[in-house]
Amino acid sequence: MRIALACSGMGRVQRGYERFTEDLFNAINDRESVTLFKGDGVRTGTEKVLWSVSRDGLLKKIFPDSSVPRLQPYYYECLTFALSFLPHLVRGRYQIVHYIDPPLGNFLYRLRDKFRLDYQMIYTNGVGMSPRHYQRPDHIHQMSLAHYQTAVDYGIPETRMTVLPPGVNKNRLLSAASKKEIRRKYGVADDTFVVLSVSAINRSHKRIDYLVEETAALSKDCLLWVDGHVEDESILTVASERLGRNCRITHVSSQSVGDLYQLADLFVLASLEEGFGIAIVEAMYSGLPVLVHRNAHFSWLVGNENCLVDMENRGNLAARIAHLMDHPLELGAISSANAAEARKRFDWSASKEGYLEMYRRIISGHN
Predict the structure, then answer these.
(1) Bridge partners, residue 3, by sequence
(2) Per residue in 166-187, pLDDT tens?
(3) CB 39 within 8 A of CB 112
(4) Which CATH class for the 2-167+348-363 domain?
């Protein structure tokens, strides 16, 4: 097999898109002919860095916070990445191009048609997109049963989809250092209750503004720590005004994310929908209790009623956090249950065979 994995943000940002692509590559690259194409980072024989305009460069100043896709830096990053990808697609004779960034896929379709290339395209639905927006891929990798069922109901044939959850890179998450040692490293007191969210920092999807307001409504002090790529800088101002020193916003390396899971007391993701939610599973795997929105996908993902909160309405999340702060035994029980659930269901050692089988099936024509 000749497989190309492509993600324009790898080496630049640490979203779920990038962590999934990196972990998938690391899980299977010792077994098959897989080449990783990324935006920056280390170059090796099987890891290629393609030139592209960075979403955080000059274009971010020209097109700040635009809601029009073609006026977003991300759009141009994917466009220039695809153009740099073209010579490799022509020479490499790849049988499959597997991608997760939706705009990148649109450009790769056009290049395939224009230059009469014959690679098969697999789209990983990592954002919970409506099926009407992903009808063009040859095959759709669904990360959850809920999104798979939505696509079936829409009319996409079951034969064009595969349901496979991503795995967890436990080597990146688990450390021999104690919680006290890690807190000392980051300057966090032992008695500080830390609410963590690992997420892109925006209002539209990740709803970090909602998370800030709910934390500010607590009667007890806690530290809200949000780690991720800043997509809406106005949130930095809101967080400073509403929480002051009780909020930290960072963007640590992928290798350091595990430290944050281990120093925190509670993980929260405020988005109402996700294609999967790799940070949720990473937090669970690390032994953190998590709180997510109550819907079919998150219910399937966490497998624990105690982790579900209706986050469409103000006050519900704050009330649940306050309750858990007052009931440490309940918090500990959720933590233990989460770790057991995640380690049973989400591990690359078990799931990578499913990805290899998906590739083989598509290459053989059984799409």
Answers:
(1) 34, 96
(2) 988 887 787 888 999 999 999 9
(3) no
(4) alpha beta
SS (H, E, C) 113-161: HHCCCCCEEEEEECCCCCHHHCCCCCEEEECCHHHHHHHHHHCCCHHHE
Residues 6+ apart with CB under 8 A from 194: 188, 222, 223, 225, 263, 264, 265, 266
Q: What CATH topology corresponds to 170-345?
A: Rossmann fold (3.40.50)
Domain boundaries, the chain: 2-167+348-363, 170-345
**In 3-state terms, the chain is what percent helix, strand and coil (to 5)?**
50, 15, 35
Structure confidence at residue 68 (pLDDT): 61
Q: Are 346 and 19 in contact (CB under 8 A)?
A: no
Which residues, in sequence order, are bridge partners of residue 198? 227
The alpha helices in 269-346, defined as continuous H runs, are 278-285, 296-302, 316-326, 328-345
pLDDT digits 0-9 by tens, 9-63: 999 887 789 989 999 999 987 777 899 999 999 999 899 999 999 888 776 666 6
Secondary structure of residue 95 in the 3-state scheme: coil
- Same CATH topology for 2-167+348-363 and 170-345: the answer is yes
